[in-house]
Task: inverse folding
């Protein structure tokens, strides 16, 4: 059986080949596909796909008669047509928990970089300015409110870490009724209440139609002028143009972004010229430990499906009975 790796930027695939080889499956070198037609040209005879960013659409599935599994390098599956996969009996797998500690750490790091003015102060001191004027006013963290949009594993980890350094925490999620409290003690509020109350709004929701541009001009207008926005989820959850306007006009204090609607972010992108933004290159997932999980578990999931076993993570388990 043949597993095709699509659009991966994770380097050598020795780990992936080792796992597939244990089952007697073949993995060729990764195919850098950006469009449907690119994907179709390399997956026509594939039994399994391991994908990072490339589109796996209904058109791709219809051109891949042998396909039994699509396995995502990571958490987000917004490039995969899950409904079409399910209709065709194709398993969709991901790795929902491989980097929740790292991503929540990144959210806290971006928060502190902005809330304590770390990046601005670093730039100032390198230019010979030893003063604090550029970051005034800074406020004590204790008592500030850290709000998480989404209450999944990463969001809860970020909220609890924020609480540990002094923030009060609140969260919003369609799965939690406002006025209730999560099992780890995070009060649930409405989305609008979170926006209006939070000093830090940290985004932790998957990208889907319901969440695309969830943080738009209207949402940004409900935030405090001194609030900061943190996004370590998916770039498309935030309306970039609306955010740029809010940052330019100082409608909010700043933003810490690890993900973008266009990746990689062009060097001349308007965000790169703003002094109230901290940018990192979709690095939140990374540690040596999480990278090992990221490279091995998607192939393990795909190989298990092809071998007739139940994979560790599957988003449409009903297909296993089809």
Result:
């Amino acid at each position: 059986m043949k597993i095709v790796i699509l659009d991966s930027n994770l380097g050598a695939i020795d780990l992936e080949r080792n796992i597939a080889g244990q089952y007697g499956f073949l993995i060729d070198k990764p195919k850098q596909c950006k469009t449907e037609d690119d994907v179709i040209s390399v997956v026509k005879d594939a039994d399994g796909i391991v994908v990072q960013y490339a589109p796996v659409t209904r058109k791709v599935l219809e051109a891949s008669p042998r396909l039994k599994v699509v396995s995502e390098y990571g958490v987000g599956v917004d490039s995969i047509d899950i409904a079409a996969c399910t209709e065709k009996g194709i398993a969709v797998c991901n790795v929902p928990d491989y980097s929740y500690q790292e991503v929540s750490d990144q959210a806290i790091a971006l928060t502190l970089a902005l809330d304590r003015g770390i990046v601005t102060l670093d730039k100032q001191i390198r230019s010979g300015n030893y003063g604090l004027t550029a970051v005034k006013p800074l406020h004590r963290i204790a008592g500030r409110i850290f709000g998480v949009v989404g209450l999944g594993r990463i969001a809860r980890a970020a909220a609890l870490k924020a609480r540990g350094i002094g923030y009060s925490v609140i969260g919003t999620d369609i799965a939690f009724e406002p006025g209730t409290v999560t099992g780890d003690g995070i009060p649930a509020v409405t989305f609008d209440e979170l926006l209006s109350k939070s000093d830090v709004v940290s985004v932790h929701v998957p990208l889907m139609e319901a969440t695309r541009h969830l943080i738009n001009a209207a949402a940004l207008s409900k935030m405090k002028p001194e609030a900061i926005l943190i996004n370590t989820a998916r770039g498309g959850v935030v309306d970039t143009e609306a955010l740029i306007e809010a940052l330019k006009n100082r409608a909010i204090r700043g933003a810490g972004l690890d993900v973008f609607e266009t990746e990689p972010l062009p060097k001349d992108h308007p965000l790169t010229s703003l002094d109230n933004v901290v940018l990192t290159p979709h690095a939140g997932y990374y540690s040596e430990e999480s990278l090992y999980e990221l490279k091995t578990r998607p192939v393990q999931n795909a190989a298990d499906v092809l071998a007739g076993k139940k994979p560790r993570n599957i988003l449409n388990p009903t297909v296993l009975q089809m």
About this structure: The mean pLDDT is 96. The first helix runs from residue 14 to 22.
